[in-house]
Amino acid sequence: MAPPSRAGSPRARIALLAVLLLAAGCSATFQPRGPAMRAPDLTAERIVTPDGVALPMRAWLPEPDGPPLRAVVLALHGFNDYSNAFEGTGSFFAARGIATYAYDQRGFGAHERPGIWPTADTLIADLHTAASLVRRRHPGLPLYLLGESMGGAVILSALAGPPPPGTEPLEPAGTILSAPAVWDRDSLTALQRAALWISYRTVPWLRLTAPRELKIRPSDNIEMLRGLSRDPLVIKGTRVDAVEGLVRLMSRAAAAVPELPAPALVLYGLNEQVIPRAPIEKALAALPRHVDSAVYEEGYHMLMRDLQGETVLRDMVSWIGNPSAPLPSGADRRPFTRMAGSGTAGSGTAGSGAARTEMAGP
Fold this sequence. Notes:
Layout: H1 10-24, E1 41-42, E2 46-48, E3 54-60, E4 71-76, H2 87-94, E5 98-103, H3 120-137, E6 143-148, H4 150-160, E7 174-178, H5 190-202, E8 207-208, H6 222-230, E9 238-239, H7 240-256, E10 264-269, H8 277-286, E11 292-296, H9 309-321
Parallel strand pairs: 4-5, 4-6, 6-7, 7-10, 10-11
Antiparallel strand pairs: 1-2, 2-3, 3-5, 8-9
Helix pairs in contact: 3-4, 4-7, 5-7
């Protein structure tokens, strides 16, 4: 048997060099916002940011012979999803005089580098840019922010801090957060934290998909989930460094919950299986008194796309019209007292077959 290598021996130096090379090849990859190089712009199909990045955009506007335009909504999608998530919502709103704009957030959908995490600060800066452009497109109309899951985390984080350099304050007329992602690092188990810590520092490039055995259902709308599973713009496998970025964003959003300005409406479903119960209860308990919350007995994570999604949308339209009035469904008078299941780390793509739509939950 060969004797142990000494620190200065050729074998030891080779081993040390191999470790250093391995470490150098395991750095995380992000796509943060670059320096401003042009004025931002809003076209029919995209938002162009100050650093020259084009974010694909969709808009749903009332028909010329339809109801008069009375409000504008800027919507942010969830993790691994994209702007098409608001197809049904935008059409529903447009028929009731509300315009909706939604864009593929940097790193998602038809963006040129899908799957590469953009950093929370970049997502927040893009939101400020988009809100300013949409507000200029519709001067004089109230602008509402709508965030689903990760989109809700971006909005929470943005509202809690000062506007990024070169941007304007958000100051929305109101905010609606549908199952906002507030699953912070402290809410992960010790095993989950350790697994993420190790994998982020060794294999940040590794793409993960959730085991079928988890069988987590983000919605009871199976046909919709099957459509997402076939959609090439929905990310099916998530890089470890993107999961780490998401956890950082969710932790930031969870800390921002007590600072959520009114008027605001926060929605969750009793059948939520993507975000665990503990962080949801923690978030609801931390909401300021002047912020409204609604709990849907039949609701899952994708509330607006669930089979009872129209009930949720009707509540949203009613709230936009009069935030102080009770919701038509009565969901604002229902406590968050039980759940059908709870998520686990890395469970967002989870579920069987068609439900494999999101990674790490939100």
